[in-house]
Amino acid sequence: MTDDKLTGLRKSIDKLDSEILKLISDRAKCAQEVAQVKQQEGRDAVYYRPEREAQVLRRVMERNDGPLGDEEMARLFREIMSACLALEEPVKVAFLGPGGTFTQQAAIKHFGHSAVCVPMSAIDEVFREVTAGAVNYGVVPVENSTEGVVSHTLDSFMDSNLKICGEVVLRIHQHLLVSENTRRDHITRIYSHAQSLAQCRKWLDAHWPMAERVAVNSNAEAARRIKGEWNSAAIAGDMAAEIYGLEKIAEKIEDQPDNSTRFLIIGNQEVQISGADKTSIVVSMRNQPGALHSILEVFQVHNIDLTRIETRPSRSGTWNYVFFIDFSGHIDDPVIRIVLERLGERANDLRVLGSYPKGVL
After folding, report:
1. Residue 181 and residue 252 share a domain
2. What is the pTM of this model?
3. Is 209 among the domain residues?
């Protein structure tokens, strides 16, 4: 009786698989037809629409009845959309490399595995590649829940006209990794990115207080280095461990269990309203008392939710500062237009970095 029931269930699964396969193929054919329509627009055709993908993923999560979780279902649809988009026009994405960084993981989470990911050795190189048109988009880290803002990314925006097209929030799990050549009882050096070393400071103090902590350009670079050294270990994530064939001797060693990093998608396009959006701006104020209050008052009067504000030294003079501000809403919202107009009257300079969908996954 049990065998008969299993046989019946397997036949049902086979039938469903055939239906799913046909539906995915039908969707892919629609994507090809979309590409043909867009090709008529010539060189100005835009194949990837962040607001459209955000709307689709939100709708998937809203309509999901289980038993798969909302995020798991959305990830499946992300990969379907990624593969279909590649039929239209493969998306090229620059990220802070080498391969195996959390930034690459964020790029794949946002664009799917069908995107062509191109590693860059520095954040400003990511900006340059997107500006030059060598890639369609870039992915850069902007803030960590434990260690705060990534200053290099904010500074790069001050020298760039690129737009923010999206955001990704990634849970960061750090592991202590060794290679097949590592003599575990003789580890005297631990490599990682400076942010990761800071995120694991207490754990390192407790378990490897005598080991030298060496900051390198990325976690993936740390993973690559220990392949040729017998007395070193690396702190990095799952992707680096897999790519470089390393073993985890301690898992999830970050000091804060909810450790997360926010990444920004940068590009050249303006993103339309998705229905749940953020806007990022940079404001330069005159050096006078109450400058910050003057900014915040505008948001308070119009009941706009501020999600982040950071201060950076201005390039225009000593002891002058600029404010990087994120808030809920889109520049095409009427109330946001009013807010920006009021800020422009008070600010020495105001630049909109972009309006984009709030992170879905």
Report:
1. yes
2. 0.89
3. yes
- Token pair 């689709």 in the structure block, residue: 56
Q: What is the pLDDT of residues 190-214, one digit of tens each?
A: 999 998 999 999 999 999 999 999 9
**79's tokens:** 């990969």
286 and 220 in a common domain: no
Q: What is the pLDDT of residue 317?
A: 62
- Check whether 72 has a pLDDT greater than 60: yes
pLDDT in tens, 218-268: 889 999 999 889 999 999 999 999 999 999 999 999 999 888 999 999 999
Tokens of 354: 């972009």
CA atoms of 133 and 41, how far apart (whole Å): 19
The H or E element containing residue 281 is strand 277-284
- 14, with CB counted inside 10 A (0-12, 13-18, 19+), is exposed
**98 preceded by a cis bond (ω within 30 of 0):** yes
Residue 331 lies in a domain: yes
- DSSP alpha helices (H): ranges in the chain? 2-39, 50-63, 70-88, 102-111, 123-132, 151-158, 194-199, 201-207, 219-225, 238-243, 291-301, 334-346
Contacts by residues 206-212 (CB-CB < 8 Å, ≥ 24 positions apart): 207/250, 207/253, 211/187, 212/188
Say how far apart CA 330 and CA 176 lie, in whole Å: 42
Residue 254 sits in the same domain as residue 279: no
